[in-house]
Structure formats: structure tokens, C-alpha cells
């Protein structure tokens, strides 16, 4: 993505400051992608941002202005990620639902989504104890009632995100993942 001249940003609930590399309160550093990529750590000051509140803060401002980067990852804290935490109160699933209900409507009403520049992927990191099927919902201006019978993994979700931003020199074949989701096939970006 960087090689293609595209930007990314992680918005994390409870992030004390960009480049934080230890857990703090209900913030878990394991939710920050740049913590795992040495090449991205130098970009953390510009790319890691606290979510803020539904009506103020970095995510709200970017959504309202239509200035979301090519890739954004929004991560709830330990009280809203549906896992629950010993210090959290209330039902863990309801807490996650409330979190999505606070942010998702404004993202879907924002100019990036309205223009068709934004695809929203809501995915979970694990399934049930019996099947481990991972719920994933893809929202875009072109997906309408699509249900894919194709099996997807976190790796295929990552590929779906990476393919449109990959340099043309990568020699990518057809975008099967995008087609299965009802998303338009796109031409890879040139650097």
C-alpha cells in the first residue's frame, strides 16, 4: 500500500498516545497493526490515532470531512470488542453492539461512503467454540444482499483489502475475492 502511494491509519479506542507499545487501561497494544511491522513503526505518530468520541475526535473529523485514508482500521477497546474484560461492566455483546451503533451510522452517512470510495468490513477475530466460523459483514455502495458461499479467512480478507492498493507490477490475477463479495473489480493502482 505504501509502495503504491496510499496511506493508512489505525484508530484505536483508549489509545493513550501514538506509538504506545504497552497495554494501558482498556487499550490493548495487540490491536495495533504497526506494533507487528517494524517497517511501519516509524510512521506510528502520523498513522495511529485515538478514535475519540462519536461526535468529536480524529475519526469523527475524518469521516465528516471525507478524508479517510486508503485504509483505516477502527479497533474498540477491551470493553467494546465483545470479549469482555474483568473491569468492564454490563453485557459484552451489548457493549460491542452499542459501540458499532455509535460509529457505523455516521461512517455510512459520510462523504467517503456516499461517493463509493469506502468499503466497510466488520469482522471478528474468532468464532464460536463449536464452529469457529467468523462473522464478517461487507458494506459498500455496490453490495446489496450478497451472500458468498466461498469460504473466507482473515488472510483472504487481508488480500481483499490489499489487492486494490497493490502496484500494477505485482502481476495480480483477477480479483476473485472482490467478485465473490459483489464488489467491483478494480485495476491495481500504479505507483
From TrEMBL:
<dbReference type="InterPro" id="IPR007312">
    <property type="entry name" value="Phosphoesterase"/>
</dbReference>
<dbReference type="Pfam" id="PF04185">
    <property type="entry name" value="Phosphoesterase"/>
</dbReference>
<keyword id="KW-0843">Virulence</keyword>
<keyword id="KW-0378">Hydrolase</keyword>
<dbReference type="InterPro" id="IPR017850">
    <property type="entry name" value="Alkaline_phosphatase_core_sf"/>
</dbReference>
<protein>
    <recommendedName>
        <fullName>Phosphoesterase</fullName>
    </recommendedName>
</protein>
Amino acid at each position: 500500500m505504501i509502495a503504491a502511494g496510499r496511506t493508512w491509519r489505525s484508530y484505536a479506542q483508549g489509545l493513550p498516545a501514538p506509538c504506545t507499545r504497552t497495554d494501558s487501561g482498556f487499550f490493548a497494544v495487540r490491536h495495533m497493526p504497526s506494533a507487528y511491522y517494524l517497517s511501519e513503526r516509524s510512521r506510528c505518530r502520523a498513522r495511529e490515532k485515538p478514535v475519540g468520541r462519536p461526535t468529536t475526535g480524529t475519526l469523527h473529523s475524518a469521516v465528516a470531512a471525507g478524508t479517510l485514508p486508503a485504509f483505516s482500521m477502527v479497533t474498540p477497546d477491551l470493553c467494546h470488542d465483545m470479549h469482555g474484560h474483568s473491569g468492564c461492566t454490563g453485557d459484552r455483546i451489548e457493549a460491542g453492539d452499542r459501540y458499532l451503533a455509535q460509529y457505523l451510522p455516521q461512517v455510512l452517512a459520510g462523504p467517503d461512503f456516499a461517493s463509493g470510495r469506502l468499503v466497510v468490513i466488520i469482522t471478528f477475530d474468532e468464532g464460536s467454540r463449536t464452529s469457529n466460523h467468523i462473522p464478517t459483514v461487507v458494506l459498500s455502495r455496490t453490495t446489496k444482499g450478497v451472500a458468498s458461499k466461498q469460504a473466507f479467512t482473515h488472510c483472504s480478507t487481508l488480500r481483499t483489502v490489499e489487492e486494490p492498493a497493490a502496484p500494477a507490477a505485482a502481476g495480480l490475477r483477477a480479483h476473485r475475492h472482490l467478485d465473490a463479495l459483489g464488489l467491483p473489480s478494480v485495476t491495481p493502482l500504479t505507483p
